[in-house]
Design brief:
single chain; 178 residues; elongated
Length: 178
């Protein structure tokens, strides 16, 4: 792994820790994680491999990322305070985020330190054409997790804001985990 790989992976993990403290939901809440995955994608995504079972690998990992993102977004508290939407990642949201981001980091470390032969055998056995398929799959998993989480938070935030404008209490729309 390069120094840039480490920085991007650590930055993505730290994003959710920043949200463990309640803060205003605004453009920065969306732009920072999107900027990170956009940078990562621009550095590593050379297209989507379509031979063998590459699309299955990419689809499954992206689906797992999207599921983790939606679940993380659902377990993020959103409320209105003094006219501002406020966001706070709960413990479940943080665990899901670290699970998704951390599993990719762990996989990269494992491959770099002795797991490459095992991944190679698995790839041959399952008709995955090579390293680029894995890079694409793991990258699109991260992108799907970030986009799905942010989309879920956006939709939930709009519902909370609308309910507040209509005079309804917004708390039933927020998921609380104790």
């Amino acid at each position: 792994m390069t120094f840039t790989d480490w920085l991007v992976d650590i930055a993505l993990v730290l994003i959710v820790f920043r949200q463990l403290r309640e803060g205003r939901l605004g453009p920065k809440s969306y732009l920072i994680p999107l900027g990170i995955v956009a940078f990562f994608a621009s550095q590593y995504l050379d297209g989507i491999p379509t031979e063998g079972n590459d699309l299955w690998l990419v689809g499954v990992t992206a689906g797992v990322g999207a599921a983790l993102g939606v679940a993380g977004g659902v377990f993020t508290r959103i409320r209105v305070l003094n006219g501002d939407l406020m966001i706070k990642a709960g413990a479940v949201s943080a665990v899901l985020w670290v699970l998704g981001m951390g599993s990719r980091l762990a996989f990269q470390l494992w491959v770099d330190h002795g797991g490459a032969a095992t991944v190679g055998r698995f790839s041959v056995d399952h008709r995955i054409t090579g390293e680029q398929a894995w890079v694409t799959a793991l990258l699109l998993m991260a992108v799907a997790e970030v986009v799905a989480r942010l989309a879920t938070i956006y939709v939930r935030g709009q519902r909370v804001a609308r309910a507040t404008r209509l005079g309804a209490p917004s708390e039933p729309l927020a998921v609380r985990v104790r």
